[in-house]
Amino acid sequence: QVQLVESGGGLVQPGGSLTLSCVASGSIFRIGTMGWYRQTPGKQRELVATITSDATTNYADSVKGRFTISRDYAMNTVYLQMNSLKPEDTAVYYCNANIIPLRTGGNWYWGQGTQVTVSS
Fold first, then answer.
1. Could you read off the pLDDT of 76-89 as tens digits, one per residue?
2. Dihedral sign, CA of 18, 38, 51, 67?
3. What DSSP letter does each residue of 32-98 carry, written as one string?
4. Which of 2, 23, 96, 120 qualifies as a FRET site for 78, CA 20 to 30 Å off?
5. What is the pLDDT of residue 24?
6. C-alpha torsion angle, residues 60, 63, 67, 68 (rounded to 10)
7. CB within 8 Å of 49: residues ≥ 6 apart
8. Any bridge partners for residue 6, and if so which?
9. CA pair distance 22, 64, nearest whole angstrom
């Protein structure tokens, strides 16, 4: 069974930094694109950043220049370094990955989410 587990959320003051981590575990054959999304109450989940298997990155305009996505391919882990955080970055952040398990077809998987709150 494939799982994505996020960590690193919390409360931070405006202008501060946080790093989120997401580890994929289970019977994994290959991982394609990994990414981060976020959601606030009453709004649709939105893309924050993605990184492909060949390290091509993509960012939402709202986080360009402040957030950096990276991957440890050997450890099946994706990171989101968040700098210069703003109150509007407050959300539940979800990890997402395209994973091909060992014995079944590929699928998109979601983590359980981690809360990020930016407030003074």
1. 999 999 999 999 99
2. negative
3. EEEEEEEE-TTS--EEEEEE-TT--EEE-TTTTTTEEEEEETTTTEEEEEE-S--GGG-EEEEEEEE
4. 120
5. 97
6. 30
7. 35, 36, 57, 58, 59, 60, 63, 67, 69, 80
8. 22
9. 20
